[in-house]
Each structure stands twice: as C-alpha cells, then as structure tokens.
Write a structure and sequence with these properties.
InterPro entries: EgtD, EgtD_Methyltrsf_superfamily, MeTrfase_dom, MeTrfase_EgtD-like, SAM-dependent_MTases_sf. By secondary structure, the chain is of the alpha/beta class. It is built from 9 helices and 14 strands. It has helices at residues 17-29, 43-52, 59-79, 94-102, 116-129, 172-186, 202-209, 215-230, 290-299, and strands spanning 11-12, 33-34, 83-88, 108-113, 138-139, 157-162, 191-197, 240-247, 252-259, 263-267, 270-274, 279-286, 303-309, 315-321. Strands 1-5-4-3-6-7-14-13 form an 8-stranded mixed beta sheet, sandwiched between helices. Strands 2-12-9-8 form a 4-stranded mixed beta sheet. The longest helix has 21 residues, at 59-79. It is globular, with a radius of gyration of 20 Å. The structure holds N,N-dimethyl-L-histidine (AVI).
Length: 322
C-alpha cells in the first residue's frame, strides 16, 4: 500500500526475533523468573497500551500532555528552528502532535517503533496534519542502534523525544547505556526532551498499575499469548494473575504474572516449572525524584537545561543537552 504524501518509505531497522527466543529462555531460567518489558509491545500489546493511556487510574499520560500543552512554546524555543525530531517508541504520536504544533519550522519527524501498523498509521496522521513536514518512519527495536534516514544537511539540530517515562522501564544501568546511545545519535549539537514519572503516594502508584477495568492485566497477560503464538508456548493464560507491586527499596513498580497453581509450561522447546504463587516479573517502572533524574541523566553525560512539572508534581518533562 502506498503511503500518504509526506511519508517517506519505511526504513527497515534492526528487530531481532532470534534474540526474543534467547531472551525468553534466559529470563525464564533465572530466579526469580523475568521477561524483558519490550516484548509487551506486539501490535495487540501496543493497542492495549494505548487503552491504558486513556484510563482514569493511569495519570501519567494526561499529566504529561498537560505539561506539554502548557510549556510547548518554551520547549520549542530550546529546540530552535529547523530541528529534526526523533521519537523513540512513537506509538500513536499523539504527544508529538502537540509538540510539533509549537516547533519552529521543524525539518523532519522520525518516529521509531516496533509495531509496524501502529507506526504507519501514526506517520500518516502526522503527515496529514503537517503537510510541509517530511516524516521518515523507522520500523525498529529502538534499543538497538537505529539508522537515521534524514540527511544531516536537512536539519540544524537533532532533538530526541522520549516521553511517557519509558526510560523508567529500564534498569538504571540500561537507562544510562540507552541515553548514551541517544547522545551519540543526536551528536554534540543535539537535544533531548524526556518525560519522567515522579515518586508519589504508593497507593496512587499501585492503583495506576492495577486499574479497576483490568486493561493493565490484559496488557500484561498478552505477553503470554504472544509467547504461545510466536515461540510455540502452552501457557494457560487463566492460570496466571496480573499483579503490580510497589518496591520501595528500588523506587519502582514491578508488574508480575503470578502462577495460580503448581504447573509446568513449555515454551521455545523447553519446559519451565512454576510453584504455586511463583511469578514472572514482566516490567519495572522506576519512579524518580527531580534530583535523582538529573543525576541519572548526568551519568549519561546529559545536562538538564529546563524542567517542567504539573502543579501536583506527579510528572516532569526535561530538556537536556550534551
Ligand atoms: C511505557 N511505560 C512508560 C509504561 C509505564 O508506566 O511504565 C508501561 C505500562 N505498564 C503498565 N502500565 C503502563
């Protein structure tokens, strides 16, 4: 299918199915069992995540949108004119839409996402809304080194956009490695606009990840459905329960899938035994203080130039430079 005017052909980036098998076998062999959170995002998982973002319980999305709307002009001033905006894990590109409205004559938009249909649909919506803006979708696992499809002479500054506090889904050491890779990608003249979810009342956090509608539970369990389909697994989905825990010593929410019985599961040609109550940790979501987040960025050689928060200090957005 031809893409709408303004959308350049899809750049086919690194996406590694072999490493999914290796990662799953490795993670399920660990004690405690764990799986990398990035595998939550197949097409179905990406749609379920979009649904999470609209939930009353899940405050981060609307809070960050409010911060972006309030301070977009200030953010645009930092990015300057003719910036190329590179978004890591672009999803529906809804936050980007609000940012692009404020940017001064942006040179290009480069959304990177692992869910191909999501990526193409979002790219077309952006191209339609901003006819003068070239859109260069990159279909890739952005934790790998991703190609940059825009010629360097086309823009003045590359600005990475990483909203949602997705950085919190990495362990701190991984987050630093990723932020260093982003820094290499945007170069010495580049910038980074990044969202961070702030530490708050644990009850509020637990509620956000154990929503009453059960959408987060469906998002979590979809990982098992994916393993059944893609790695020939035989997980009995209803024999695992979703649970999100606040772990204060690590400042993080952890999502788990808790085995409801003693059982053995086959996946990717191997068997794994579960005790009743034993869980697989499927995601970390770290929460930050403003100082802690600044220190994390500094360890990856990023200096924060501006910080914006909402009045209740639930969430923060930062502009940083190398
Ligand atoms: C994408 N990421 C920032 C979300 C979070 O809040 O950690 C993923 C998510 N997991 C459960 N709900 C939302």
């Amino acid at each position: 299918t031809a893409l709408k005017p303004g959308v350049h052909p899809l750049t086919d980036g690194p996406r590694t199915t072999q490493s999914m098998k290796d990662d799953v076998l490795h993670g399920l062999s660990q004690t405690p069992k764990q799986l990398p959170a990035k595998y939550l995002y197949d097409e179905r998982g990406s749609s379920l995540f979009d649904d999470i973002c609209t939930l009353e319980a899940y405050y981060p999305t609307r809070t960050e949108v409010q911060i972006l709307d309030t301070h977009a002009n200030d953010m645009a001033a930092h990015a300057g004119s003719k910036a190329a905006l590179i978004e890591y894990g672009s999803g529906t590109s809804q936050k980007t839409h609000r940012l692009l409205k404020a940017l001064h004559d942006p040179a290009a938009y480069v959304p990177i996402d692992i869910a191909r249909e999501h990526l193409l649909a979002a790219s077309e919506r952006i191209a339609e809304a901003f006819p003068a803006l070239p859109v260069f979708p990159v279909w890739a696992d952005y934790t790998a080194t991703v190609p940059m499809p825009v010629p360097a002479e086309a823009y003045t500054r590359a600005v990475a956009f990483y909203p949602g506090s997705t950085i919190g889904n990495f362990l701190p050491e991984q987050a630093i490695a990723f932020l260093q890779q982003v820094r290499t990608r945007v170069g010495a003249s580049g910038g980074l606009l990044i969202g961070a979810d702030l530490k708050k009342d644990p009850n509020r956090l637990r509620h956000a990840y154990n929503d009453p509608q059960g959408v987060t539970a469906a998002f979590n369990k979809n990982l098992l459905i994916r393993l059944n389909r893609e790695l020939d697994g035989d997980f009995a989905i209803d024999q695992f329960a979703h649970e999100a825990r606040w772990v204060p010593e690590h400042n993080r929410i952890e999502m788990h899938l808790v085995s409801q019985t003693e059982q053995t599961v086959q996946v990717a040609g191997r068997s794994f035994a579960f005790e009743s109550g034993e869980s697989i940790c499927t995601e970390y979501s770290h929460k930050y203080t403003l100082e802690g987040f600044e220190a994390l960025l500094a360890r990856a050689n990023w200096q924060i130039r501006a910080t914006w928060t909402d009045p209740d200090r639930l969430f923060s957005v930062h502009y940083a430079e190398p």
